[in-house]
Amino acid sequence: MIADVLADAGARMDRAVEAAKEDFATVRTGRANPQLFQKVLVDYYGTPTPLAQLASINNPEARTLIVTPYDKSALKAIEQAIRDIPNLGVNPTNDGNIVRITMPELTEERRKEYVKLTRTKGEDAKVHVRGIRRKAKDDIDALKGEVGEDELARAEKELDALTRAHVDAIDEALKRKEAELLEV
User: Fold this and answer.
1) H or E element that contains 44
2) 35-64, pLDDT tens digit by residue?
3) d(CA 160, CA 84)
4) CA 53 to chain centroid
5) pTM for the full model?
6) How far apart are CA 97 and CA 69, in angstroms?
7) Pairwise CA distance, residues 1 & 177, whole Å
8) Helix residue ranges, H only, the chain
């Protein structure tokens, strides 16, 4: 029973760490990165559709992305969805076949703003991991009458170690992203 609770908590914490890494990837750095558009939804015939399902995104140069839609009628909607992305500051151009996105150079002030945004996302992820820990602790405490005190104490220590490992993984990903952001 305790093993099931710990396994479930570990799996949920793993997913939280992966979600945090994906979230960090959506924060813009100096280079153009197709992952920035991972969560962009395009209004395609009245239905919010992920950009990746409507077009291919290529990175021919360091600060340029080319979006090639599978359906040319979606070109305007894709261009508008990219223009509406908050905190990106890009102005896409469309030549009738593709959407070209040139990323402007990041200023020092903008880099610091993105670092702050990334830290906020990292803290949110850590709060989520701690929430998973709290739920698992409650589940373990509910087993009080069924298992011995020693097993409960050992399970709690394992849960704390699991939580610490996942929080450290988030911190490590955050450090890498900050270094990437501050790199000129």
Assistant:
1) strand 41-44
2) 778 788 999 988 999 988 999 998 888 788
3) 42
4) 19
5) 0.71
6) 8
7) 38
8) 2-25, 51-54, 75-83, 108-141, 149-182
